[in-house]
Amino acid sequence: MAVIELTGLRKEYQRFRRPPIVALDGLDLSVPDGGVFGFLGPNGSGKTTTIRCLLALARPTAGDCRVLGVDSQTALPEVIGRIGSMVETPGLFPAMTGRRNLALLGRIQGIGPAAVAAVLERVGLAERADDPVRNYSLGMRQRLGIAIALLKDPQLLVLDEPANGLDPAGIKEVRELLRGLGAEGRTVFVSSHLLSEVQQTCDRVAVLARGKCVAAGPVDDVLAAGGSHGLVVRLGDLQAGRAALAEAGIESLLEADHLRVALPPAEAERVTRALVHKGLYLTELRPEEVSLEAVFLELTGEHHGEAQ
Amino acid sequence: MRALAAGELRRVLARRMLRVLTLLAVAGITVAGVLTFLNTEKVTSEQLVARTQAAAARTAACEAGTDPPEVDGRGIDPQRLPPPGSAERREFCRFAAGGVDDPRFKLTTLKGILQGTTAPLVVVAWLIGASVIGSDWQSRTITTVLTWEPRRARVLLTKAFACVVVASAFALLAQAMLSLALLPSAYLHGTTAGANGDWLLSVLGVLLRGTGLVAIAAAVGFSVASIGRNTAAALGIGFAYFLVIENVVGSFLEDFRRWLVLGNAIVLVSGQDSGGEVIGRSVPVAALYLTAVGIGLLAVATMVFRRRDVA
């Protein structure tokens, strides 16, 4: 069952005497139950708008938006107790302490002080919990925002750039926290521009560009689908190797210390045969590594090109 | 719902602006109490009668020319005074010999004082209402609350309720403190004459109507700031509307004053039909009119809030 189901979601922001901004342009997305789902996209691609529509903070211009089986625009109150969320930098009451902020929100859903203390401990804010929020750093505010999202012990977590403002240690902690939450069977829907984080944390990913989903699925599948299928070839004499490959009808590209061959890994045998035929021996032959970043740039860059 | 209301009340009470306003109010009330005490004096009725008679004798002697008066402690050359028996002489002597001001603090004047302090309390209530929702928009706490309680009308009306309750309580406490601060002057340096049951009822009426007006001001300030998503917007609009538009319209179109917010507020606080020269407006109708304005603006703010996107 999908915990988030977006169909043809469109959101336009009207402007005075100017054409409207199309933030979401018929977005279709399905987020399955359980695990960590990464929501990737460049700035202005519509990630935060999507999250706002999910949480009924923004009204879609068209399309359907279902969360935990209900229409988020009309029936969100039925399921809000099972959804923890953080939208951008969390809005907190600066005059109150972190603990007080959590306690007052928790009371709305009947959550007591024990749960507040536990969640503060979990995000590493227990020691500063009784300081006013106005004295918190950006990273501490971000942690408190995550604590607010976790306080309901939610089935679905919707987090918008949770690693923003965190130091490397904090980013690592959040990564482990998200993985742990996903492993517990919860669904974590996390938007991020930190591609390496998504690659390390998420089971599935969707890539958003110009308000549309341009790729979605398990991280490995997206990598495989979006990335190139080349081979990395390393040998002693790169120039001679390149000439041997060309003679065999195989195109290659000379890089700093290796050759890039535009053949799928299944055809690696053609490379070894052509080189051995010329008395050249390999020191390394492997499929080219594809990073999510490369796929992301390829997918979103291509889309930018179309738009222009 | 109760938890939401309790939370909103606590948030309003935790605001630094409310603490500053409370400190200012306490300081102002203390100063008012001390100054009133220092500027009043305990005299008996007999002493007052004697002082009045002495003043009358001084005036008569001045008019007759038998006792040249002094002005600012200095004698005046009788040749330079108007001739005895003339109207100018009588006017001069009334001024120079002086009447007798009653130096006592009369408790019955408390009613007028409380009516006078309603105006600044209305401004404070407007400020409380506007700043609470304005800062919620600015700090995006409204977004956080909506991720816990998505029923927008409920959230906004609960916030408005918290503002109204706090502003009303602030006004009542300030008026009560002011009354207490003036009591030493009334009992030690004054008189409680006339402060009977009817007077007490009229004072309670002033308090009740004043608090009602404060509650409406808080709701209006809240609504305007909510629509504009900004405290400054509410303060600017309030300033422009009341000081410019209502003042101008009220000055040039007297018949129209009964349809202005200020005109109705004056009638309500005065407690008199057509009070403050607002012709054709009774106190109950003024109360209903102002309540309708407050509820109407709150309804518009709620409608706008339900439809708009929240960042």
Kindly list the characteristics that best describe this protein.
heterodimer; A: 308 residues; alpha/beta; Rossmann fold; Alpha-Beta Plaits; 2 domains; 6-stranded mixed sheet; 14 strands; 38% helix; 29% strand; elongated; disordered C terminus; B: 311 residues; mainly alpha; two-stranded antiparallel ribbon; two-stranded parallel sheet; 11 helices; 73% helix
What can you see in these coordinates?
- The complex is a heterodimer of chains A (308) and B (311).
- Chain A has 308 residues and is α/β, with parallel strands linked by helices.
- Chain A has 2 domains: 2-225, P-loop containing nucleotide triphosphate hydrolases (Rossmann fold, 3-Layer(aba) Sandwich); 228-287, YebC, transcriptional regulation domain (Alpha-Beta Plaits).
- Helices cover 38% and strands 29% of the residues of chain A.
- Chain A has 11 helices and 14 strands.
- In chain A, strands 6-7-8-3-9-10 form a 6-stranded mixed beta sheet, sandwiched between helices.
- In chain A, a hairpin with a 2-residue loop joins strand 4 (62-67) and strand 5.
- In chain A, helix 3 packs across helix 4, helix 4 (113-122) packs across helix 5 (138-150) and helix 9 crosses helix 10 (268-277).
- Chain A is elongated, with a radius of gyration of 24 Å.
- Chain A starts with a strand and ends with a helix.
- Chain B has 311 residues and is an all-alpha fold.
- Chain B has 2 domains: 2-40 and 106-307, no CATH class; 45-97, no CATH class.
- Chain B is built from 11 helices and 4 strands, in the order H-H-H-E-E-H-E-H-H-H-E-H-H-H-H.
- In chain B, strands 1-2 form a two-stranded antiparallel ribbon. Chain B has a two-stranded parallel ribbon with strand order 3-4.
- The two termini of chain B are 24 Å apart.
- The mean pLDDT of chain B is 89.
- The chains are: A alpha/beta (308), B mainly alpha (311).
- The interface between A and B is medium-sized, with 30 and 26 residues.
